[in-house]
Amino acid sequence: MPATPEPNLGYRLALAALPPLYVGLTRLWFATCRLTVHGRQYLDEALQNSAVIVPFWHYSIFYMLYHVRHYPAVALVSASRDGEFIARIARRLGFLTVRGSSNRKGVQALKGLLRAMREGRNVGLVADGSQGPARRVRPGAVYLASKTGAPLVPMVWAADRCTIFGSWDRTVLPWPFCRIVMRYGKPLHVPNNLDNEGLEQYRQLLEEQMNEMYEQVWREFGRTRHDDGPGAVTGS
């Protein structure tokens, strides 16, 4: 079996320098944002009873990691080279990480998350995966909920002024001093050990709930969705 090539020097230097720089900068950057939260009671009540699974859309990852840093959790991060940057940022913000995706090390990742939840840890994961399609729920979160009995508590956010990148998910970076609206969803309780048909039913329910929440937060800033405009930057 051929040996895995060593990362080049530039990549190793970037891994050493960029995550601490990013964390330090965003602590200052996001602290200037004015945050409004809807539905916080759903998360607080769920946390009193058990570990929870927090699914969120991939576009929201920049601010989401910062926002949930006060909730001890395990984060599922892509096993790709680019995912290593996210993993190091997540660890600096206090998260444990499990590496994997639907395309690489997926079974291993699910086993790691199951172990973490059986130890009482919360789990945060990107509902639409590392490659999309955008805002289409992949089955992993529902599978975890069915295996552990933990409720799904989805979270979405929108910003009135932000940069929207040209990636597959149109990743959003809020501007300093912007307004952010965060919405927590009602817990979705999934029956234990569902078969494939049952998993698909609850996958659709979660997707419908998250997209309804998504439309609600962006409508507060006069948009039906964050990627419906022609440009990469939006403001109000």
Task: Give a verbal description of the structure.
The protein is α/β, with parallel strands linked by helices and 236 residues long. The chain has one domain (34-234): 3-Layer(aba) Sandwich (Glycerol-3-phosphate (1)-acyltransferase). Helices cover 42% and strands 18% of the residues. It contains seven helices and ten strands. It has helices spanning 9-31, 40-49, 61-67, 81-92, 106-118, 140-148, 196-219, and strands at 34-38, 53-56, 73-77, 96-99, 122-126, 155-159, 162-164, 172-174, 179-184, 233-234. It has a four-stranded parallel β-sheet, with helices on both faces. The longest helix has 24 residues, at 196-219. The chain is globular, with a radius of gyration of 18 Å. The mean pLDDT is 88.
Descriptors:
236 residues; alpha/beta; Glycerol-3-phosphate (1)-acyltransferase; four-stranded parallel beta sheet; three-stranded mixed beta sheet; 42% helix; globular
Q: Helical content, roughly? A: 40-55%
**How many separate structural domains?**
1
Main sheet: strands, sense, barrel: 4 strands, parallel
Structural class: alpha/beta
Overall number of strands: 10
Q: Helices and strands, in N-to-C order? A: HEHEHEHEHEHEEEEHE
DSSP strand (E) fraction?
A: 15-25%
CATH class, please? Alpha Beta
Please compute the radius of gyration using only Cα atoms: 18 Å
Number of helices: 7
How would you briefly describe this protein structure?
This protein has 236 residues and is of the alpha/beta class.
